[in-house]
């Protein structure tokens, strides 16, 4: 599924935001979670690749962001929740401060 997503997305870039957790766990400023490796942040997908974006920006791609969410749900991971503040993207929930990244938690 990831290869198919990459082929379809062309110039769109999947960028992990590097906020997962500390190597041995514990509080990871400024996150309320991200303590034990089951939470990760991802940049929303862009139209042109590379640049950071947010909901409503001219380079933000709702289409590719939705395809990314579908691809993540199709993996073998048991996804507990994906927080992201674009109400037009399916399978995400609103959470304050999540307009510029997707936060995914797995079981």
List keywords for this structure.
single chain, 107 residues, alpha+beta, 3-stranded antiparallel sheet, 3 strands, globular
SSE inventory with pairings:
Elements: H1 2-9, E1 39-42, H2 62-73, E2 79-83, E3 102-106
Antiparallel strand pairs: 1-3, 2-3
Note down, in words, how this protein is organized.
The chain is of the alpha+beta class. Helix content is 19%, strand content 13%. It is built from 2 helices and 3 strands; from the N terminus they run H-E-H-E-E. The protein has a 3-stranded antiparallel sheet, with helices on one face. The radius of gyration is 13 Å and the shape is globular.
Molecular shape:
globular
- Strand arrangement in the largest pleated sheet: 1-3-2
Uncertain segments of ≥5 residues (pLDDT<50)?
none
Total number of strands: 3
- Report the order of strands and helices: HEHEE
Residue share in β-strands: 5-15%
Number of helices in the DSSP assignment: 2
- Terminal residue distance: 21 Å
How helical, in percent, are the residues? Answer: 10-25%
Question: TL;DR?
Answer:
The protein is of the alpha+beta class. Helix content is 19%, strand content 13%.
């Amino acid at each position: 599924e990831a290869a198919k997503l990459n082929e379809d997305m062309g110039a769109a870039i999947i960028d992990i935001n590097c906020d997962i957790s500390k190597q041995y766990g514990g509080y990871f400023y400024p996150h309320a979670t991200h303590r034990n490796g089951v939470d990760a942040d991802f940049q929303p997908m862009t139209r042109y690749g590379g640049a950071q974006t947010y909901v409503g920006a001219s380079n933000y791609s709702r289409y590719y962001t939705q395809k990314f969410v579908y691809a993540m749900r199709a993996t073998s991971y048991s996804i507990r929740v994906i927080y992201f503040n674009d109400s037009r993207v399916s399978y995400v929930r609103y959470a304050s401060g999540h307009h510029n990244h997707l936060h995914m938690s797995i079981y």
